[in-house]
Write a structure and sequence with these properties.
30 strands; Pdz3 Domain; Thrombin, subunit H; 18% helix; 6-stranded antiparallel β-barrel
Length: 509
């Protein structure tokens, strides 16, 4: 068996340090033996000796009782994926395939998903992957990650006692990376309970799973943080733990010291491919809600507002004349959506849902996503500079995102906007870019636009609330903003499938 050494330096390279540590420990023990029986007499101030023999040291409390209780409910999940269904790398589990929401997380930290992972191609046109899971009912329902089973042609599980059973996928939810599977043939499987109380930062936790296919492995740590957003999607609300989690732990549970599941392990941050003490788990409260939907319908029904949103940064607030960075900014609306039908427009700021103020864009996604389609919702927003309240009926979040036309390869001919460091061309002149807006054909890496995230192929749709159709109108809008003393101007920019607002410093173009 190959040993994974993330640090090439061996412990034996430090003999003097090891000896120092050992000698220090011996000295401390010797000192304790020498002085444990010494006490000070109250009447004469002198030290007197009392026997130290027979005293026992307190032993640290372990987790063996908890582990013995919960480990039987944890399973190893093995999947078979047809080669034509998915060409990818494996090392223990499927490790967040290309195109998954978690790909953005790994790019964000400058790491390839397959970094350090050998490609395992089986001889008969399929690949094998492994993950973890746990039973939530005695009749065989079990939870794992969506990315473990999403393209599997066959799924089987192995219980803690070594027995293997075929399993079928009941439902998946890519947006939270959860899946529900079912094992038939028994009604006495050991069950793990989802925690009722929310774990706190600093609480002890135990991760149990199938790292690198070893099965039944237990690691311990604490809750390092809550509410982590790793860029995987609008419902990010991860529990961060420092218990060692590796490939193959995906879908496995994290338990508290009461033996209840506080999270489902789903991703790690690792420059090396192995554990560095930063792992992310889906919180139990999310698991509980999603699993109920999957068991009932096979998918999750979520309310749909039909807006693309982004945070209100200080720059955006300044450019809009806002005194606070509150609410979320509507960057784009989807066709025939509930928001479009009641008159919400790009550039509006949503301040509250059912009189509950919004903390950020993720807060809006969670509030709307937790409501059933058909629910009546009261929305407080800033519309054309005035606060108003609107009511609407939520639609159902589409199960499959509508594909948008490929923007194509933009041409390299366009007008320069030198103060921004951009070259632009009319969208109508660029294949696949549509008829409105100005397409970015080149970006000066040292310019203002590059600092604000512009890239080739982006489309500027409007500037300062005015719809744009060519580069000249971008220049004119910048000059107009400068002439009235504005320090920044708000641009609405389409980048791939997403639309966002960018507050750009105003200079004479």
């Amino acid at each position: 068996m190959a040993t994974d050494q993330t640090d090439s330096t061996k412990a034996s390279d430090f003999p003097s340090l090891r000896r120092l540590v050992l000698l220090t420990s011996v000295a401390a023990v010797g000192g304790a033996a020498l002085f444990a029986g010494i006490s000070k007499g109250p009447e004469d101030g002198f030290l007197s000796l009392t026997p130290a023999y027979g005293q026992s040291l307190a032993r640290p409390t372990g987790f063996a009782d908890v582990v013995e209780k919960v480990r039987p409910s944890v399973i190893s999940v093995r999947v078979k994926v047809e080669a034509e269904a998915q060409a990818m790398s494996f090392d223990g589990d499927q490790s967040n395939p290309q195109g998954s929401p978690y790909e953005r997380f790994f790019r964000r930290f400058g790491q390839r998903q397959d970094q350090g992972m050998p490609r395992i191609q089986r001889p008969h046109g399929f690949s094998m992957g492994q993950g973890s899971g746990f039973f939530i009912s005695a009749d065989g329902y079990a939870v794992t990650n969506n990315h473990v089973v999403e393209k599997a042609s066959e799924v089987e599980i192995t219980t803690d006692d070594g027995k293997t059973y075929p399993a079928k996928v009941i439902g998946t939810d890519p947006r939270t990376d959860l899946a529900l599977i079912k094992v038939d043939g028994r009604d006495d499987f050991p069950v793990a309970k989802l925690a009722v109380k929310t774990s706190r930062v600093g609480d002890w936790v135990l991760a149990v799973g199938n790292p690198f296919g070893l099965g039944g492995t237990v690691t311990a740590g604490i809750v390092s943080a809550r509410g982590r957003d790793i860029g995987a999607g609008p419902y990010d609300d991860f529990v961060q733990i420092d218990a060692p989690v590796n490939k193959g732990n995906s879908g496995g549970p994290t338990f508290d010291v009461d033996g209840q599941v506080v999270g489902v392990n789903t991703a790690i941050f690792s420059p090396t491919g192995g554990s560095v003490g930063i792992a992310f788990a889906i919180p139990a409260e999310t698991v509980k809600t999603v699993v109920a939907h999957l068991k009932d319908k096979g998918y999750v029904q979520r309310g749909w507002l039909g807006v693309e949103i982004q945070p209100v940064t200080q720059d955006i607030a300044d450019s809009m004349g806002l005194t606070k960075t509150e609410g979320v900014l509507v960057a784009e609306l989807q066709a025939d959506s509930p928001a479009t039908k009641i008159g919400i427009r790009a550039g509006d700021v949503i301040l509250s849902i059912n009189d509950s103020p919004l903390k950020d864009a993720r807060d809006l996604a969670k509030k709307i996503g937790s409501m059933a389609p058909g629910s009546s919702v009261k929305i407080g927003l800033l519309h054309k500079g005035s606060e108003k309240t609107m009511s609407l009926i939520l639609g159902e979040l589409p199960k499959v995102k509508q594909a948008r036309a490929d923007a194509g390869e933009p041409n390299r001919v366009g007008a320069d906007v030198p103060k921004l460091g951009l070259s632009l061309a009319p969208a109508a002149n660029v294949n696949g870019a549509g008829n409105m807006g100005a397409v970015v054909t080149d970006v000066d890496p040292d310019g203002i636009a590059a600092d604000h995230g512009f890239k080739t192929g982006d489309v500027i749709l409007d500037v300062g609330g005015k719809v744009i159709s060519n580069p000249g109108e971008v220049r004119a809008a910048m000059v107009a903003a400068h002439s009235v003393g504005k320090s920044r101007v708000l641009m609405r920019v389409k980048s791939g499938e997403a639309t966002r607002f960018v507050a750009i410093p105003v200079g004479k173009a």
